[in-house]
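Practice record 12: protein with FE2/S2 (inorganic) cluster.
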Amino acid sequence: MSSVDVVEGRLGPVDQIPVGEGRAFLVGDEPVAVFRPRSGGLHALRAICPHRGGPLADGLVDGEVVMCPLHNHQFSLVDGSCATGTDDVAAYSAAEEDGELVVRLRHT
Ligand code: FES
């Protein structure tokens, strides 16, 4: 038996996220922010900023970085790492499958 448990969220059309922005979703009981950067692709992070709980889906997306709207900490959309001195945020898998947004959370 595998020790990896995957929770999958099928979240509807990718087009509901404007290019260059993020939107918040719930996958299982996990709040997830999905971003559609202008450079292409999709990225998913835990939606709650580890600094003081800011809404990352509302942050400014610049390249492959999102800036939290509350105190401007910046997180990589690729791996959730923070370059501005607070904790990293969890990163998840996001993909487009037949025009639909699919996010997968892995719990080990
Ligand atoms: S809550 Fe996100 S930077 Fe402070």
